[in-house]
Amino acid sequence: MDDAVTTIRLDADGLTLAADVHGPIGGAPVVLFHGGGQTRHSWHHTSQVLAARGRRVHNVDLRGHGDSDWDADGDYSLDRFAADARRVTTYVRDEAGGRLPALIGASLGGITSLAAIGETDADVANALVLVDVAPRIERDGADRIGSFMSEHMTSGFADLDAVADSIAAYNPHRPRPTNLEGLKKNLRLRADGRWYWHWDPAFITGRRSSPDETRSITDPDRLSNAALAIAARRLPTLLVRGRQSDLLSEAGAQHYLDLVPHAEFVDVAGAGHMVAGDRNDLFNDAVVEFLERV
Q: Which long-range contacts (C-beta less than 8 Å, at least 24 apart) are formed by 20-25?
């Protein structure tokens, strides 16, 4: 197997998206979409595991995040994210000779995947893995994420230790990293000597991302209808929840399972909202087992 990782750029209606591609050409295709405020590097270990299992992995930076373009109009609506996802899956399908990919999406990436699949009659994916997100989420948890993202959005951080402190305060159950070099993948050092998150502030502050628009990204009625469409197609689906998550409650997970009765469910002990980062071993085992079986 070729272990080399190639970074490509994909067209997304006027801007381009960065994606890391690895795994054997001809392997079963998988597309990874990260959460809001993250980058494709959050999937580093998962993408390695999937590629080692013979899958062709496309690990994508969402618009306005990481090395993907920022939208000049600040358009970070669910419509745009879902349209981008469909363009990515079309590219991947064509590269794979017509084989549809499995989509794995965490948080915003999961919502994006859910809408991309459930709001079109076209075939987009052959399986879906939702990571700690569903049509009904807890508003307190969503607000806590928003506060974390906004706190240093414009002021940045004096150094990487300050970044690590901020992350540790948000995720107190996860050990504070001792090696801070990995943080640089999600940050940029600017001319003022401070470190800034590598995503477009307009994702939070832009005219298309007003508080009302932010709520519409997680509109429970819209996403429930998308889930019902997935249920009607009986698309193989896995919902992964972090047992300590304050975003997706047990009731929220059950609501999704009621909408999509054939969906499978894994509740990962010792993990919060950042399931893959908190318990990467258990998460990867669950995802690999699901994909290989379905």
A: 20/47, 20/57, 20/58, 20/59, 21/56, 21/57, 21/58, 21/59, 22/47, 22/48, 22/51, 22/57, 23/50, 23/51, 23/54, 23/55, 23/56, 23/57, 24/51, 24/54, 24/56, 25/56
